[in-house]
Write a structure and sequence with these properties.
It is built from two helices and eleven strands, in the order αββββββββββαβ. With 168 residues, the protein is an alpha+beta fold. It has one domain: Sandwich (Jelly Rolls), CATH 2.60.120. The radius of gyration is 19 Å and the shape is globular.
Length: 168
């Protein structure tokens, strides 16, 4: 019985270490009532100046080390995307979401990168529109050309984790 108990305790300790390591490898990044679970090394990025654009509004930008706002006439592609990383840009429209927007979060999982997807960005990207709690969002992902398969998988995990959060 002592060996079984010791083995069980060892298993519990190992699971605790793995769980702690997994939690340490991602962070919840929040801004303006939305959030994503981002890979280790990602941070919030200051939204670029939207100029005269007031709707939709950029509500969250997060990316790998080196991501930064840049001058661009394009709202989504107004960020430097690290060649070995990625950037997520979330837009929100004012008012009620159109009924044509999907509400099933599954839409966040069924995405494929395409080259020159965004105007003003030559790299790989993808976006999805979704309605959550009656509001319309567009979740955008841009990936650098030297991002590894693991980097891309982590960036997609961040997109899939998108959610609306309570403020305050």
């Amino acid at each position: 019985m002592g060996r079984v108990r010791a083995s069980a305790l060892g298993l519990v300790a190992a699971l605790a270490i793995v769980t702690t390591a997994a939690a340490a490898s991602e962070a919840v990044l929040r801004a303006n009532g939305v959030a994503i679970r981002a890979p280790a090394g990602w941070d919030l990025v200051t939204p670029a100046d939207a100029g005269p654009v007031t709707d939709p509004r950029t509500v969250l930008v997060a990316g790998a080390d080196g991501a930064a706002p840049r001058r661009s006439e394009c709202q989504v592609a107004a960020y430097r995307v690290p060649v070995d990383g990625a950037v997520v840009v979330v837009l929100r429209w004012a008012g009620k979401a159109p009924e044509s927007f999907p509400t099933d979060r599954e839409v966040l999982s069924d995405l494929r990168l395409r080259r020159e997807y965004f105007e003003c960005f030559d790299g790989r990207g993808v976006s999805v529109q979704i309605a959550i709690r009656g509001r319309a969002y567009q979740v955008n992902l841009m990936v650098g050309d030297r991002a590894t398969v693991k980097d891309v998988e982590q960036a997609f995990a961040a997109v899939r984790s998108f959610d609306v959060v309570r403020v305050g």
